[in-house]
Amino acid sequence: MTARIHALAVAAALSALCAATAAHAHYPVCECRMADGQTVVCTGGFSDGSKAPGVVLDVIAYDEQVLVKGRLGEDSTLSFPRPAQDFYVLFDAGPGHTVEIEHSAIK
């Protein structure tokens, strides 16, 4: 009987540990702004404050043409000339970790 109680206690502790880990999961964040009248600067990272160097950041027209294919630099930023046509920015850190920013939200 004591072994069974011990096994249940271990199982409960593991469940609590897994739940705590899930509660601390991070999600992607990305912000784009106009640096000047012609240049957009996007900064990406994660909600826990970690940076995202090397993460894909593409600028895509609404007809799905990729206008800028890029990756965030060591400082987790990417700059590009603002396209003349309507577009959105796709920050893609992997499945379930994407952010889309519409051109109209970039000020």
How many helices? The count is: 1
- Rg for CA atoms: 21 Å
The largest pleated sheet is described as: 4 strands, antiparallel
The first-level CATH class name: Mainly Beta
One letter per element, helices H and strands E, the order comes to HEEEEEEE
Keywords: Signal
How would you describe this protein?
There is one protein chain. The protein has 107 residues and is α+β, with helices and mostly antiparallel strands. The protein has a single domain (26-105), classed as Sandwich (Immunoglobulin-like). Helix content is 21%, strand content 40%. The protein is built from one helix and seven strands; from the N terminus they run αβββββββ. It has a four-stranded antiparallel beta sheet, with no helix packed on it. It is globular, with a radius of gyration of 21 Å. Mean pLDDT is 85; it is low at 1-14 and 16-23.
Please specify the SSE layout and strand pairing.
Elements: H1 2-23, E1 28-34, E2 39-46, E3 56-61, E4 66-71, E5 77-81, E6 87-92, E7 98-102
Antiparallel strand pairs: 1-2, 2-5, 3-4, 3-6, 6-7
Keywords: Signal
Signal peptide: 1-25
Using brief descriptors, characterize the structure shown.
single chain, 107 residues, alpha+beta, Immunoglobulin-like, 7 strands, disordered N terminus, signal
Concise description?
With 107 residues, the protein is of the alpha+beta class.
